[in-house]
Every structure is written in structure tokens, then in C-alpha cells.
Amino acid sequence: MQIRDVINFLEKIAPPVYQESYDNSGLIVGNRQAEVTGVLICLDSTEAILDEAIEKGCNLVVAHHPIVFKGLKTFTGTNYVERTVIKAIKNDIAIYAIHTNLDNVYAKGVNEQFAAKLGLVNTRILAPKRLRKIVEIWEFQPNLELTEELSQAGFYPDTAERQLRIPFDVGEKGILLNILDKHGIKNNHYQIISSENVSTKVGAGMIGELPQPMQEMKFLKFLKNTMQTGCIRHTALLGKPIKKVAICGGSGSFLLRQAIQHKADIFITGDFKYHEFFDAENRIIIADIGHFESEQFTIDLLFKHLSNNFSNFALHCTDLTTNPVQYL
Asked: What is the mean pLDDT of the chain?
């Protein structure tokens, strides 16, 4: 089993095309063709994480956060990023990051795990992305086998006047074009055009409902215990039960407007700045539980994905807490 096999599997769950423009998900250090001896799963790849990987015989670290966000011009070990990369190279350890692409998928992603911890139902993407496109096939001859295979793969084509139009998300492009090629439909037979429709499968944050409404302080205590956070910073309580809940793992303050528009009773995320709390304006409760705390169960999520599909090598969740924020 090679590192590329693990990468290919993870990228079917969270295609790289779904990551944000500022992000650096993917293989950061290492050789895709190397045989996997073991995988260590963590939130942050640090020097201590690499020491743990060495101790456990793992040559692949799967992290949520990329250790490198921007170009490195020197490798002198003057900061933790350089030292981590140097140590990984010296010890033949690959580092793979699955970050905002895993944040942005509805199914099997960070926010689905977050919502499940809180027991939310009727969940959907809070801020869907405009990632829809359409394959338009000219001079289409009716082909029942093709249309059935497209439907089984989750594509729903429309046929009109010898044209076949197939909506798809950008992350599904490879799957769709492989099906068309299999049926002899080459790229000179179709064009890909943009669509204004938003995707229901990809986007930032999630919104859902509690099975039963909860009194505000009772819910905040439930939230603190469930998400294992040392502190919740929140705005003033509004004196009404909490039913509709908006969430975003990591830094989600940019989604406050959408949470309010969807009439959420509370918005839970991390990294709100002082002045941003004023933007609640008594229309919603903001609950900042911390960046690490809102994403910590991503480790369990990745372990579940990998353990359900690979038995050729040892899988480990890190024993370390990489949260740099401490509470007194």
C-alpha cells in the first residue's frame, strides 16, 4: 500500500478543488510512491507530532491543518514550521493536510461531525458554494445504459431536442467525464458551461435543529461539556429557547450574516474577535468555543474514514494535544 492510495481515498471524500484559495491542503512533504508503514492522525503537524510518528513507526502524518501556508524561502530551523519540515524530510515522513476541502464538504466532513456531536437534525450547508457546472452534449442519441449509469452515480441529466444536459459539482468532474468516455462520448461532443445554481453538497458551515428546544444556559452547559472546551465566550442571552443552531468548525466569524439570515438562535464557532461580538445585535447568540475545540473531533472522523477502508497498516490517533491555547 502506497501513500498515494491513502491520498486518493481521502481526496474522493474531500476533493482538493473544494479548498479555499488561501489554503495549502494536499501532500506537503513526502513521496507519493513510498510504502505506508503507519499513519498518525492529528489536527496540527508539529515537531512533537513527528517525534510521536517516529516512535510509533508511522511514515505518514495526516493532519487537518497544513504546516505550510505560504512559501518557505529558507530552511534554517528558525521557527517551528521550518523545523517540522526539516525533521519530516530527514526522517522520510510524509505530511498530508486535508483542511478547508474537508471543511467544505457536507457529507463526511468536519461540520457533519460537529453537528453529530450536538445531535443536530435536518442539517444543511449554511453558505453553499457556487460550484455547479453543466456538461452539454450535442447530437445526443438516446442511450438508456448511459442515463442509468449517470443516475446511479448521482447525476441527473435532462434530455431535450437531441441535447443532454448534466449538472455536476466541480469536484465530480473526473467521475462524470470518465463515464462519458466509457460510452464513447469524447470532448469534441460536448461543452462545459457555468451554472448559477449553488451546490447543496459543498460550502461553509452547517445549520440544523435540536430534536427538542433547550433553555439557553442549559444548552451552553451542554455545549461546553460535549465539545470539551475550557471556556465559552458568548454574547448576551436573549431569553428564548434554542432550537435552530448554526455551526462552523475553526474560524467562522465570516458566516455570522448567513447564520442571522437563516434565523439561527445560536452560532457556534471559534476565533471571534472582540468587536465582532457586537455584530450579533441581540438577534442571535454567538458562542465562541475555541478553534481547536471546534475541530478536535476531526481526528476521530479521519480515523473512522481510514480504518473503515484500510487494514494494511497501523492507524493511530495522536496522543498529544496540539492546542496552543491554555485556560487557567
From this structure: 94
DSSP H/E element including 124 = strand 121-128
Amino acid sitting at position 155: F
Q: Which CATH class is domain 132-194?
A: alpha beta
Domains 105-128+202-294 and 132-194 share a fold: no
Q: Which residues contact 9 (CB under 8 A, 6 or more apart)?
A: 305, 306, 309, 310
d(CA 38, CA 57): 6
DSSP class of residue 279? G
Q: Which CATH class is domain 3-99+297-317?
A: alpha beta
Convert the pLDDT of each residue in 70-122 to its tens digit: 888 889 999 999 999 999 999 999 999 999 999 999 999 999 999 999 999 99
pLDDT of 198-208, one tens digit each? 778 899 999 99
Q: What is the CATH number of domain 105-128+202-294?
A: 3.40.1390.30
Question: pLDDT (tens digit, 9 = 90+) per residue, 259-311?
Answer: 999 999 999 999 999 999 999 999 999 999 999 999 999 999 999 999 999 99
Residue 259: closest CA among 272, 13, 197: 272
Q: Output 15-18 pairs: Cβ under 8 A, ≥24 positions apart.
A: 15/101, 15/170, 15/171, 16/101, 17/101, 17/170, 17/171, 18/100, 18/101, 18/104, 18/105, 18/129, 18/131, 18/170, 18/171, 18/202
H or E element at residue 176: helix 173-182
Block residue for cell numbers 491543518: 65
Alpha-carbon distance of 293 to 291, in angstroms, equals 6
